[in-house]
Amino acid sequence: MSQQNNPLLAKVKPEFQGTFEIRINSNNDKTYLFNYIYEYKHWQNIITILVIDLFKKNNSDYRYFLDYEIIRACIGDTAGSIKKQEKIHYIKNKYRDNELYKSLLEIGEKLKNHNLVMVLRRFKKDFNNYFKAIKDYKANPLKYTGMPKMPKPRKMSELLNYSIPLDTNSWSTKKNLIGINLDSKMRYFYIGKIIKDAKVLDKKIQSVSIKMKNKEIYLSFSYVNEEQILNSELSVDKVHNLGPIISNSAGIDIGLNNLISLFIDDEESQSIIVDGARYKYYNSKFNRFIAKLNNSISEEVIEYKIIIKKDKTEFQIPIKWTKRGHRLKRYISFLYRKRNDFFETEFHKISKRVVEYLEINNVKQLVLSKNLAQLMNNGKCKLRKKTKQNFIQIPFIQLIHYIEEKAIKNGIEVIFIDEAYTSKTSCISGDVLEVQTKSKSNQKPLANEFKGTRAKRGLFKDIELNKIWNADLNGAVNHIKVAFNSCFKWLKETLFKLCNPKVIKSANDFLIFNNGIVMQVKSGYQIPLKR
Length: 531
Known about the structure:
The chain has helices spanning 27-56, 62-65, 68-76, 85-94, 99-110, 113-139, 226-242, 277-298, 323-360, 375-378, 385-393, 396-409, 432-440, 471-484, 496-499, 507-523; strands at 2-4, 17-23, 161-165, 171-174, 177-181, 186-190, 195-196, 199-200, 204-213, 216-224, 245-254, 258-264, 272-275, 301-308, 314-321, 363-368, 413-416, 452-456, 459-462, 467-470, 502-504. It is of the alpha+beta class. It folds into 3 domains: 14-21 and 162-225, no CATH class; 29-148, no CATH class; 245-274 and 356-523, Nucleotidyltransferase, domain 5, CATH 3.30.420. Strands 1, 11, 12, 13, 16, 17 and 21 form a 7-stranded mixed beta sheet that branches. Strands 2-10-9-3 form a 4-stranded antiparallel beta sheet. β4 (171-174) and β5 form a beta hairpin. The longest helix has 38 residues, at 323-360. It starts with a strand and ends in an 8-residue tail after the last helix.
């Protein structure tokens, strides 16, 4: 248990922003928005080709095409601001016969100028991030799986995901409707009885964007939660009046069989394990079904394209399918969207319940690790195919992001650590920091330094104490040790925290469990935990 004084609260800067999405179901509205999404993406492709082509030729004019004031003046055929008039005149005269420049103006005239500025700003940010990534790659090449690549245009036929950020002048709300301006006039979309006093779902909207994800259209809203800001200010004032407060730290170990293993650094709270079997089963069932559909699609191919490699080997690429083949391809896209929505919804629910449990137990510091989630990107996952599918396809990093986001909003400081050897080393008898230090200095840790071993899958045996407890909770405790260099010798007397966790099967079970604790606290009576 750790003590936390008022100055530490200054470190916690809650982000009171969030996002939510509403899917467009009307076929007429979807067709209308699809057309404009392709138009905006086509315009972005043209500006991308122009900028990259000029950059590769060492022509400094590419900077002018990244300046939204210049591009806006060229599309609107205006003089522009006094500071930029000379540059605008230069671009208009030099590139007036350039075919790409002509297409840029022709398409841009049909679209809302303010939204094109937002698209250009986003592209400029991506372009500048490329140079930052290259600089970081040269300093730390091991962080990357390969050299970062410059932004490039995307084939329209392969476009599955894209978003149009809307300027504040390009959207408005009124009763049951949201108005969106993508060209020269506002078009209204019905989104239900969720708009009241210029708020959507009682949230003050900051920005709106149109998103296409796997051929489905969503309205994405970002908002500020005014109620959380008010509660945060009140709680800070209350803390300043009370003086020092006692708070706890917690560690979470993310895994496959046990999705979340949560340990709180106190002597009373019960450790939590969220069962991951449901998500493994869903993912494996999804993969089996997709494999069957792909097999069916391969039987519907009616034309192939022959490709000859440099070593003169030939292989065929399907380019035409029957009507049934196209229907199956669309169905696969729908299933992928459904799968992504499933994990997004479930992980949002689970992360919310986790943070609620942390608040109930007055946790102010949470320790997490991204090592497992980073296996998706670093190419170092050396597991057999069946196991690797679950590690790579279940979006652990999304779950970690949701927990981090909700924890910060509720005033909990989130600390990320390296989880190397945390599952191999005993959290009571061993010293995980010493083992990690040896490993980083290229000294292989000796087996007896771990002070324990895996008794079997899911169980850890301490060879000094001759005791067995949950292996994932052992890792969660070691997360806290790595972050704060804490000592957990007191766990010898309270092994129930490692041996008798509460197993949660679903978000609903977690809600019932949390509500039970709250009711016990309100009634002034708590059922003693089994030890």
